[in-house]
Amino acid sequence: MVRCECGFEVRGSADEIVSGMSKHALESHNMQVTREQVLERARPA
Amino acid sequence: MNPAAEVPVWATEGPVQAEVFVLRMKSGVPELAGPCGPEPWYIEVGENDDPVEVVSRLSTNLLGPPLLVHSTSWRRARGSVILSFLVLIRDDQAAELAGVPIARAELARSAATQAAKSIAAVQVIEHGLRHLSWLVKDDAIVRDVLSDEWKSVLAGYVPEPFQHL
What we know:
The complex is a heterodimer of chains A (about 45) and B (about 160). Chain A has 2 helices and 2 strands, in the order E-E-H-H. Chain A has about 45 residues and is mainly alpha-helical. Chain A has a two-stranded antiparallel ribbon with strand order 1-2. Chain A starts with a strand and ends in a 5-residue tail after the last helix. Chain B has helices at about 50-65, 120-140, 140-145, 150-155, and strands at about 10, 15-25, 30, 40-45, 70-75, 80-90, 100. In chain B, strands 2, 3, 4, 5, 6 and 7 form a 6-stranded mixed beta sheet that branches. The model of chain B has no long low-confidence stretch (mean pLDDT about 90).
């Protein structure tokens, strides 16, 4: 899972986490993030 | 994946960030009703971004078109220059987002040549609403987009020149 400071969380497979967090980061925070950046902050739920 | 027990919290970063307070009127009381609930909503502002455009675009995409996007102040925090915005939305807008009533606050005062030591979110909102209380009298665009209910509330934010004892 990955958790954003705004309270948003995404769980699932690595692909799902990357997809969900990338979408949230861009749509809610104007952040362009890479797969590596997302997975660096992920841990097993 | 990071095996650490604590989940590292994702946060915005970069040299410039927007700090957005989404405000909505509910039964005559303004409330904070942004996507981060009672917390400020942070948005990264890229080197080629227009801050007002970014805040307007993301607000529109997440909440629907705002009534007003007002850049109210700036400060240094979170390792960035923080540009604070008030975004006012319609009373019936973003109904799925819970609102938190806004409290009044003393302003964070700067020294003559130095910034205030600390500035709380509620003080930023107070400062922004005092701006709007002036703009609603001075700026036809602000006056036109705000409801009578907003104008009535903002009238209470005009600093009194003096009080009778």
